[in-house]
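Chapter review: from sequence to fold.
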Amino acid sequence: LRHDLINLAHRRAPDIAMILASNDTCNAQGFEGTSLQNSRYPVGGGLHGGLHARELHNWLAVGGARFRESVVIEQPSGIIDILPTVLHLLGLPIAQSIEGRVLAEALKEPGDLDSRPLVVTQTQHSVGADGYRAHLTWHRIGGASYLERGWVTRD
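The token string follows.
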């Protein structure tokens, strides 16, 4: 897959990137999602991430007078959205060089911002040798991109 699809298209990016294979098998704690590797790894140890949905998804809790209460927001978001959201709440300009977006769907009063942003989902497939196929799904909201999951199939 192209490096830009997994946010590796920048001046510090490697020429070749490797991501460990993963699957939906439950781990010892009963949670879905394991990475395949053959090293000694301590119980509770972690990797620096992969493309399984469990490795890519996280959660964010916010509170305060300007945020909606007791809601779960289903739109994709990421750590890159915190800075533009805070700048917006402070009434400060958001430079074009800042990645991410204002999390308008979390605000009580989003003003001119769309509190129900359009989510566009895309999937890329790449064919390799000997029946190998790599797949990647991501979402876009405006100019922000959020990885959903990556997986491999073999014929």
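Two observations follow directly from the output. The CA atoms of residues 40 and 97 lie 41 Å apart. The chain is about 10% helix and 25% strand.
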